Amino acid sequence: MGSELEAKRAEGLIPRFELERVLNQDQAGRRISLLGRIDSQPALLNVERSPFSLNEKWLAGLPRRLGRVRNLGVNDVYSWTLGVFGAQDGEQEKRLEGRQDDDDDDDDDDLFADVKLNLIFPCTPAHVAKYSKQAARLVVESPQTYRDAVMPYMERKRQQGQLNWVYNILDGKTEVESVIYRTPRSDSDNSEGFLLTPDLNWDGSTLEALHLLALVERRDMWSLRNLKKKHIGWLEHMRTKLLAATVATYPSIQPDQLKLHVHYLPTYFHLHIHIVHVALEAGATQATGKAVALDSIIETLR
């Protein structure tokens, strides 16, 4: 009985919490630490989004629990949106706009969605394999392995239309309004051109989870394997421009808060550079053996 009373008491404390200030936000915005008071005494409240239920009935009804979604972008078979669960229409609109009531003008620029959704439709068996749970292996790739196995694999994937969405961006057919920086045509030919745009996995607002993508214009660069010593100047130029464009677009971020890296093997075979905030918690995509720092590539070539 005593433990039940303690549990009830603890549950009753939370609604009485009065916020004073935010101490920290991490895990790409999924966990936040708040300082406040309960009954005039100091209190610290850590709030973390819980994992999704794996109950099949709950998951089957998940799309219909989204009372409202707001599209962030569409490219080829890919689209990404923000969604709000279960509120009434008026409340959903306020939350998507980051407002708690019509008279509150604070934080109007902050999106307050429950989830970010990436839809692939129609999807292919390759998409299904990519997003299915897989066992990881660390492989040391020899030049012969690259020539005999990896390069033919890359070529097959490129011929299957895997890069249509990349070419749509480079050709200005999609995501034109999202491009942060593009090399002026007068500055260079297509052999050194590139553009910078938000990665589709970023929600577009949580700066500590910032994830941008730089795509090179030339189409003969499949991966870091194609980079040679003669490309050092080009890579250094890209590094300078990408850092400058990012901090100009997001002034609260400093250059030393950004990491630039290239994946190998990449998910798609067109040379691209990832720009992420240093506070973005490193998952599998930033693991050793997957992410290669741009600075390391430059120094290795040098």
Q: Would you give an account of this structure?
A:
This protein has 302 residues and is an alpha+beta fold. It has three domains: 2-48, no CATH class; 56-119, no CATH class; 135-301, 2-Layer Sandwich (HIT family, subunit A). Helices cover 28% and strands 25% of the residues. It has nine helices and twelve strands. The chain has helices spanning 2-13, 56-60, 62-65, 89-96, 125-131, 143-159, 164-170, 232-249, 294-301, and strands at residues 18-26, 31-38, 41-48, 66-75, 78-85, 115-120, 181-182, 194-198, 211-216, 258-263, 272-277, 291-293. The chain has a six-stranded antiparallel sheet with strand order 7-8-9-11-10-12. Strands 1-2-3 form a three-stranded antiparallel sheet, with no helix packed on it. It is globular and about 70 Å long. It starts with a helix and ends with a helix. The relative contact order is 0.09. Residues 102-110 have low confidence and may be disordered.
Offer a few descriptive terms.
3-stranded antiparallel beta sheet; alpha+beta; Scavenger_mRNA_decap_enz_N; globular; HIT domain-containing protein; DcpS/DCS2; HIT-like_sf; 302 residues; 9 helices; hydrolase activity
Nutshell version of this structure?
The chain is of the alpha+beta class and 302 residues long. It is built from nine helices and twelve strands. The strands form three sheets. It has a six-stranded antiparallel beta sheet.
Task: Spell out the blueprint of helices and strands.
Elements: H1 2-13, E1 18-26, E2 31-38, E3 41-48, H2 56-60, H3 62-65, E4 66-75, E5 78-85, H4 89-96, E6 115-120, H5 125-131, H6 143-159, H7 164-170, E7 181-182, E8 194-198, E9 211-216, H8 232-249, E10 258-263, E11 272-277, E12 291-293, H9 294-301
Antiparallel strand pairs: 1-2, 2-3, 4-5, 5-6, 7-8, 8-9, 9-11, 10-11, 10-12
GO molecular function: hydrolase activity; RNA 7-methylguanosine cap binding
Organism: Ophiocordyceps australis
InterPro entries: DcpS/DCS2, HIT-like_sf, Scavenger_mRNA_decap_enz_N
